[in-house]
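Risk register update: the risk of archive-format incompatibility is retired. Evidence:
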Amino acid sequence: MTVVCRLEELPEGSATRFVVDGRPVAVVRIGDEVHAIGDTCSHAEVSLSEGEVRCDERELECWKHGSAFSLLTGEPQTLPATQPVPVYVVRVVDGGVDVDVHARAAGGGS
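Archived output:
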């Protein structure tokens, strides 16, 4: 696990990009939930953290072509993307946001 930031540093309802052990990761805070997902769109290979978070759907939408990815599974919810992105284990411990890019979250993509 790698501490990427403090919980209070994560803006509500948006994605923040971090590089953890050489892997780009988008970390999203929705209320008390924190999600960590691969930050590269499987369709256009652009940064997902620059896209829009759909809080109610728990999705992150790619800014380039509009593919939305589930923050829970990494599966694409809309075209043109057809391949999932990885979803990583994330924990909040003593206010620190820990991400493990070597462990996939249950149900997490590729």
